[in-house]
């Protein structure tokens, strides 16, 4: 039965986005200035018609209407250009499967993401964070994006494969994901299949990366079948494939096992890595927020050890930094749904098969929900703070029955990683503000390079001097074009069944549903 959401009675407004180009529609604006384009839409109405190539679509700009869409998955099912392209990569895994199969798949995977299971992995997450910065040297440049992808690949592989993803395969996975993520965005906003069947270098790289990723996962599955059982997610899936899961989920096919693993690899690695890279980019531009974070870490992790569940619960300001990053730069920034029947939304009659879009980035930058939305202000998430009443607008993990299954896992991973790295290192921009990145399939800095400075506790000589106070996102964007630290080709959405934990004052916080 569909879940109805009461919507405040009001007169909804509708409109059409400006700047339609023949054949391409609004795809040019989405490709050339995607975030500015999104931020311009609420002024046009609560529901705004846009064109994705020749296809009409409707962007939902008001948080109450977005909740109405997300909590009626029978009417607004997974579909549209984004999921059409994702299915070529993930098949019908948890993120992309239709509504009718979602409950079965979610019940199968849920045990891997229980609070007790996630809590037991806290120290492991911290150890992975410590390992990625072990080779850093004072005053040397650090490829922060690569380090965060290595970190999240390590954590995700432990969850999925008990660490059997060796260094060579982990590097291959990272390389494949980098190509795939770049290719997904343009395939979403320009939904003209003929363009992507052309034998261009970019199309060949994308298809090759997809084939290689599938091949790597197939090899891991085959090796596990020949080896001893393990208590990890792959083991759970193989048990279900044999019909022995003990739950009313039905047996999995071989293809479904691979689809689930590819889905969780993409979402578990990419989305959290982009969130972490964004955290350190923003801290480099905002020394006051960094100083407050360091004070908490010096108090809670006084001996410099990795946090366990007890310490993690005391890192409130660290969690606020991650939550504010997810608000300002949600890795999953644009999603689509497809109507399964003719319906009405905000007075608009939508035909069956209509594409409906929503953007966490757009919602998170509404000044009616978040004053000074372009500013990085972790203090807004303090208990009783200004964000206390903005919960419905905070949607990095979606809502409803298809809300990200891994939100607690991702949030725990992000807080533990930030705590371990920032306790021991300050990461400084080589010169000037970093600006904000451009999105691709996810939003985050794809080529962030910072300079590492070891930290000392105040009693041991005080923290290193901080750079000048950073500016807000819009000022930095227009005054300083993005450089090496801000990617020019960043991605559009990651799934939502495996993301971070909700902020204390809102529903949840980086993906659509993994």
Automatic annotation (TrEMBL):
Specify where the region named Disordered lies, as residue ranges. Answer: 453-514
CC cofactor = heme
Q: Which InterPro entries match?
A: Cyt_P450, Cyt_P450_E_grp-I, Cyt_P450_sf, Cytochrome_P450_monoxygenase
Example of a GO MF term: heme binding
Presence of keyword Iron: yes
Pfam families in the cross-refs: p450
Stretches that traverse the bilayer: none
Which positions bind heme?
Answer: 404
Keywords assigned by UniProt?
Heme, Iron, Metal-binding
What residue ranges carry the coiled-coil annotation?
Answer: none
**What protein family does this chain belong to?**
Belongs to the cytochrome P450 family.
* Protein's name in the database: Cytochrome P450
């Amino acid at each position: 039965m569909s879940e109805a959401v009461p919507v405040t009675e009001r007169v909804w407004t509708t409109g059409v986005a400006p700047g339609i180009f023949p054949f391409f529609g609004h795809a040019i604006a989405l490709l050339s200035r995607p975030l500015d384009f999104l931020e311009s839409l609420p002024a046009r109405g609560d529901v705004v018609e846009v064109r994705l190539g020749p296809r009409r679509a409707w962007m939902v700009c008001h948080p109450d209407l977005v909740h109405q869409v997300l909590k009626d998955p029978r009417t607004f099912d997974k579909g549209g250009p984004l999921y059409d392209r994702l299915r070529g990569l993930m098949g019908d895994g948890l993120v992309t499967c239709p509504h009718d199969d979602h409950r079965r798949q979610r019940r199968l995977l849920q045990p891997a993401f229980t609070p007790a299971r996630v809590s037991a992995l806290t120290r492991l997450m911290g150890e992975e964070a410590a390992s990625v910065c072990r080779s850093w040297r004072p005053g040397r440049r650090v490829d922060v994006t690569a380090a965060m992808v290595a970190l999240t690949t390590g954590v995700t592989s432990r969850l999925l494969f008990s660490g059997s993803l060796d260094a060579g395969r982990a590097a291959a996975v990272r390389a494949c994901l980098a190509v795939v993520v770049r290719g997904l965005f343009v395939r979403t906003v320009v939904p003209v299949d003929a363009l992507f069947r052309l034998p261009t270098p970019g199309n060949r790289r994308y298809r090759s990366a997809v084939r290689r990723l599938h091949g790597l996962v197939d090899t891991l599955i085959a090796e596990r079948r020949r080896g001893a059982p393990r208590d990890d997610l792959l083991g759970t899936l193989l048990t279900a494939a044999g019909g022995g899961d003990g739950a009313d989920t039905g047996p999995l096919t071989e293809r479904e096992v691979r689809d689930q693993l590819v889905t969780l690899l993409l979402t578990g690695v990419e989305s959290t890595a982009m969130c972490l890279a964004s955290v350190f980019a923003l801290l480099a531009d905002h020394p006051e927020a960094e100083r407050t974070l360091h004070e908490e870490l010096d108090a809670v992790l006084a001996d410099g050890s990795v946090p366990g569940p007890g310490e993690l619960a005391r890192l409130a300001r660290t969690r606020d930094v991650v939550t504010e990053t997810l608000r300002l730069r949600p890795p999953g920034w644009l999603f689509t749904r497809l109507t399964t029947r003719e319906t009405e939304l905000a007075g608009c009659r939508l035909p069956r098969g209509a594409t409906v879009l929503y953007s966490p980035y757009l919602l998170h930058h509404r000044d009616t929900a978040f004053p000074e939305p372009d500013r990085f202000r972790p203090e807004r998430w303090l208990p009783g703070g200004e964000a206390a009443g903005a919960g419905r607008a905070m949607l990095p993990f979606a809502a409803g029955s298809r809300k990200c299954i891994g939100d607690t896992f991702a949030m725990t991973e992000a807080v533990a990683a930030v705590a371990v790295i920032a306790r021991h290192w300050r990461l400084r921009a080589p010169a000037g503000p970093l600006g904000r990145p451009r999105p691709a399939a996810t939003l985050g800095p794809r080529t962030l390079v910072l300079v590492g400075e070891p930290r000392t506790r105040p009693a041991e000589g005080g923290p290193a001097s901080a750079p000048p106070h950073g500016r807000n996102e819009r000022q930095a964007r227009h005054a300083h074009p993005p450089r090496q630290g801000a990617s020019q080709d960043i991605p559009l959405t990651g799934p939502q069944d495996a993301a971070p934990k909700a902020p204390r004052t809102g529903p949840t916080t980086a993906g659509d549903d993994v």
